[in-house]
Every structure is written in structure tokens, then in C-alpha cells.
Write a structure and sequence with these properties.
4-stranded antiparallel β-sheet
Length: 82
């Protein structure tokens, strides 16, 4: 059985893309999240857990911003990864 590094990708579909990176779906069912110099591969269930975690973090960040007096201590989202 080929390892994930040697798996031949017959068909890859881009599900989302932005200046930060992209998410692609391989014909084998694995999702790849690519950010500048980093690529992470996920089974669909693990990817869904990650997106739920990130959504919770985003909501928490919004709460922190909304409750902070004066200028926000938390910077606004960057338009790209450094």
C-alpha cells in the first residue's frame, strides 16, 4: 500500500482559495489545507472538527474584541500570512 507521500492524486478539486491559502479535495477523499509553507492533510471527519474549532476561536476572538475598552488589544485579521 503506498504511503500518503507517494499516493498518486488522480483528481484534485479546489474547494476554497484565498490569499491565505487553499483547501483541496483529492479523489482518495483526503482534504489538503495549504498555507504558504505548510500543508496539512485531513480525513473529512478530522477536517470538520478543525473547522468547528476554528469557528469557536473566531467567536471567542470577536467576544474579546467587543468587550475590550478603547482600542482593541487584539489586532484585526491580517489579509495574508507572514
Amino acid at each position: 500500500m503506498p504511503s500518503p507521500q507517494t499516493h498518486a492524486h488522480e483528481q484534485i478539486e479546489t474547494l476554497a482559495a484565498s490569499s491565505v491559502g487553499d483547501v483541496k479535495l483529492c479523489s482518495c477523499g483526503v482534504l489538503t489545507l495549504s498555507l504558504q509553507y505548510l500543508s496539512l492533510r485531513f480525513e473529512p471527519a478530522a477536517f470538520r472538527e478543525l473547522t468547528a474549532l476554528l469557528a469557536q476561536a473566531d467567536q471567542g476572538l470577536s467576544r474579546v474584541r467587543d468587550s475590550a475598552p478603547g482600542p482593541s488589544a487584539v489586532p484585526a485579521p491580517a489579509s495574508h500570512v507572514h
